[in-house]
Amino acid sequence: MSGLPQPIVHDMRRAKRLEWLTLFWMSSVVVVMYLAMGSSQAMKTAFLEDMLSLIPAITFLIAARLEPKRPSEKYPYGFVRVNSLAFLASAVVLTVMGGLLLFEGVMGLVKGEHPTIGPITLFGQTVWLGWVMIAALTYSVIPPVILGRLKKPVSHRLRDKVLHTDALMQKADWMTGLAGIAGILGVGLGYWWADSAAAAFISLSILWDGLTNMRTASAELLDGAPRELKGPAISQEAKRLHERLQKRWPEATVRLRESGRYMMASVEGVADPGPLPSAAELMGGDPAWRLGHLSFVPPSSPPDDPPDSG
Amino acid sequence: MARLVFAGALGILLAGCDLPRDPEGTESLVRSRQTIRLGWVSGARPDPAAQATLAKLSRKFGARVERHAGESEALLSELEEGRLDLVYGHFAESSPWATKVHLGEAEGAKKKPPKDRHAPRFAMRNGENGWIMAVARAGSGAAE
Prior knowledge:
Number of strands of chain B: 5
Largest sheet of chain B: 5 strands, mixed
Distance between the termini of chain B: 47 Å
Family (chain A): Belongs to the cation diffusion facilitator (CDF) transporter (TC 2.A.4) family.
Subcellular location (chain A): Membrane
CATH superfamily of chain B: Periplasmic binding protein-like II
InterPro entries (chain A): Cation_efflux (IPR002524), Cation_efflux_TM (IPR058533), Cation_efflux_TMD_sf (IPR027469), CDF_Transporter (IPR050291)
Transmembrane segments (chain A): 20-40, 46-64, 85-108, 128-150, 171-194
Oligomer: heterodimer
Number of helices of chain A: 10
Helix content of chain A: 55-70%
Distance between the termini of chain A: 31 Å
Number of strands of chain A: 5
Keywords (chain A): Membrane, Transmembrane, Transmembrane helix, Transport
Number of helices of chain B: 5
CATH topology of chain B: D-Maltodextrin-Binding Protein, domain 2
């Protein structure tokens, strides 16, 4: 399989444009957050979360470049699964960072660290750095929430897990911003623990994202059945395809797996599949391009015997 | 939900005009004791800008300055434990104490001195953000 199916070319272009916009806007957020960071643990955690949010965008853009490449001698099945590899890598990074930041936040609470958010001189005025942090956090929420909303429908049409995860994480970014602001205001009101507590809360959300993504990514790498974009449940499209294939070849064993955004079907135990229906026919009302590959395996003779190892 | 969050945030902002406050209440203790417990690192030359900052603080809180002379190590430990409100000495920004206490800006300096240069500064207890702000404001006013 090489190139992209025609029906998704337009959406793919749009997705790439959105991811480039994400890189631009999130980099601006990262710079603003860095400048206002100070010694607040909540700010540091929110800053790192914003930095981590660049990873899905980068992995998507790299994968999108490799995916349409022609199969080569070394990679005869092409590069459609680059997507899955990228997804697993970003899930691992999220999990590790989430774990580390959670540890730091909890240690801050255990040690009773009193965070200092001191003064800063702006235009000759001595201002509390907390106000600057709150302004930075407020800004940090706006681009991701808008971009997340724009990406979600595109990710559905493309059946793209990296893009979908990216969209969900960004859509939920307002919680990070709000938690950060609550932490800073808490410190301002004299509650020293508010900062570490907010940091722990934000890192929990990073860790949660990482763990759920890892679960979905592993399913694909273990050749599990195609999953829903939203979670680990088997996709409805896959169930319908399975049903249709089974109906057409009732004596066969039908197995489905997922490769990137495509479904791979294997119909086993059929000596002669007869005239083959088109992909559109097999997919019913679902997008035909999703069926990336259909293969038939003849029955071993005599049936139920283990395959000959010679 | 969004309206509730907005109203809450507005409420906090309006109530927060006197932010930040101290978790251990240094500012209000200085006010109620009418005393600023100042540690003076032995041998530290007095600096006119620092003197002006102290005078301004003392006026603002209606508090007299109670001087305790000693070695910097001992004084900074006392500050960390809350037995002093302020320590004056010549400290570098890169000092290992910089994570345990809050070191203020160099007194009377127009430009920030290099990180490893010892400069006259006040040190305050970590996290006492209201008090830290009060000392910084007194300092920036005195520099004018």
